[in-house]
Design a protein that fits this description.
- By secondary structure, the protein is mainly alpha-helical.
- Among the domains are: about 80-130, no CATH class; about 145-250, no CATH class.
- Helices cover about 45% and strands about 10% of the residues.
Length: about 260
């Protein structure tokens, strides 16, 4: 008895006819993988090399969400214009404030920051008044004997009497007027006394004018006429003060007698 097996064709084993067909001569995309087909399709839509670079490096590598977020953070043209307007207004306001400060104070910005010829340390916002020619010359001029003691600083023509009855003159610098002696006494803290300094009792020579002296608390006698002469050399007051102090320090008190 012969066994006959009838072959049954399974639908899953049947190869579609289309799969074994050769692609047409002009159809090259049928033989490329799906990724290459997508790339070729995307590249065919790029119109320039710059757009191609953006498309291949940005859009292809960055997620769509990141691209949307970055795009959302970019300032719009209106926002950029608003920012520029605000910066310009701020600069204009600063310049206006600087101009108003300069106009109100009379000082430039440099003088307000670093000082200058018209800078006033007492009130930096107010320009210092320019000194007049007279005040500047007065400040520069040294004191004189007349400015310190008045018109009559020394006695006029002090004289002495010789034993033979003839007269001679003394140097007026040693014969200060009483008013000059009072001024010097106030300077050094002494008192005025009248005393003949060049002729002693019993001397054959006689002074016709007495000497007004300044006596210090320790008894030392200072000739105020010599102190007044310190003002005749054109020295500044600071140097004159030093000379007066040295005169006081170097004048010894009278010797003590027992």
């Amino acid at each position: 008895m012969a066994l006959h097996v009838t072959p049954i064709a399974s639908p899953s084993l049947i190869v579609p006819e289309v799969s074994i067909r050769r692609p047409a001569a002009g159809n090259t995309t049928a033989r490329q993988p799906a990724a290459k087909v997508a790339t070729a399709t995307r590249m065919s839509q790029v119109t320039s090399s710059f757009d191609s670079l953006l498309a291949s490096n940005s859009a292809a590598t960055r997620p769509a969400g990141a691209i949307v977020t970055a795009a959302a953070k970019r300032p719009t043209a209106a926002a950029t214009a608003t920012t520029a307007s605000a910066a310009a207004a701020s600069a204009a306001g600063t310049a206006a404030a600087s101009s108003s400060t300069t106009a109100a104070s009379g000082l430039s910005d440099f003088e307000l920051l670093f000082g200058g010829s018209s800078y006033n340390p007492a009130d930096p916002m107010v320009a210092a008044a320019a000194p007049s020619a007279s005040s500047a010359s007065a400040a520069a001029a040294p004191p004189t004997a007349q400015s310190a003691f008045g018109a009559d600083v020394w006695m006029t023509d002090p004289i002495g009497l010789s034993p033979d009855g003839s007269t001679f003159g003394y140097n007026p610098i040693y014969f200060a007027t009483e008013s000059t002696a009072q001024t010097v006494a106030q300077m050094v803290g002494g008192t005025v006394v009248a005393k003949n300094m060049f002729t002693q009792p019993g001397n054959a020579f006689v002074q016709q004018q007495t000497n007004y002296m300044v006596q210090m608390p320790n008894g030392a006698l200072i000739n105020p006429g010599l102190v007044a002469s310190f003002y005749t050399f054109g020295f500044p007051q600071s140097q004159i003060n030093t000379m007066i102090a040295q005169e006081v320090a170097n004048t010894p008190p009278p010797a003590q007698t027992t």
